[in-house]
Amino acid sequence: MRKLTAAILIILISVITLTISCKKDKTEISSAGGNASKNMNGDCMKCHKSGGSGTGWFTVAGTVYDSLQQNTYANATITLYSGINATGSLKATVYGDALGNFYTTATVDFTGGLYPSVTGTDGKVKNMLQSITTGSCNSCHDVSTGKLWAR
Predict the structure, then answer these.
(1) Phi then psi for 92, rounded to 5 degrees?
(2) pLDDT higher at 70 or 142
(3) Which of 40, 95, 108, 146 has a 20 to 30 Å separation from 30 between CA atoms?
């Protein structure tokens, strides 16, 4: 009986693990100069989530615009810190692509909130003064707040 119970438990764990692994599809991470992204100015995580039509489950994603908020800003760098104004521990770095989008499926721990910073290709930094608990940047930017932009 114990062997049967152990065997059933192992099978159950294997099925759960495979199911979770398969749902994530594949690793997706934007890179400076890349151009595989699409759909600027929308909430990336509406599709890139469990059960969504997009490939991969994004943990951080969005679009960066220029200071006039009219055109996308290529190759920005997005960093997430545990402290305001790029202080505390660096928790994640995501590079924007040539189309202005940034995204990753890498695990990011938002516990306690994180503070984003956007660095333009000229090295100028724009810090967000409020903490975030989700990486779905476009779910607020250009919906209830202005677009995410670099200087």
Answers:
(1) -165, 150
(2) 70
(3) 146
